[in-house]
Design brief:
Elements lengths: L7 H14 L5 H17 L3 H18 L2 H7 L4
Helix pairs in contact: 1-2, 2-3, 2-4, 3-4
Amino acid sequence: CYRDLGLHGRAVAMLRAAIAELPVTYRRDRGQYLARLAVTLNEAGEREEAAVVADQARGLAQETGSVRTLAELDRLR
């Protein structure tokens, strides 16, 4: 909801914290959170970092077959 409110800094911090707490076996969830982080970074004007994070998310989405993560990444276009 912070992202939707335009509070990108707060959203980035919360997403990073959530990603750090995910068990490594939660690959689909990690991909989804990384995709949300990429979109948020992009909206915050951090386009280079957003691109790096988006690549990580895209890789996980392809590995896990996550259509939802790919749909989130479509918001970057």
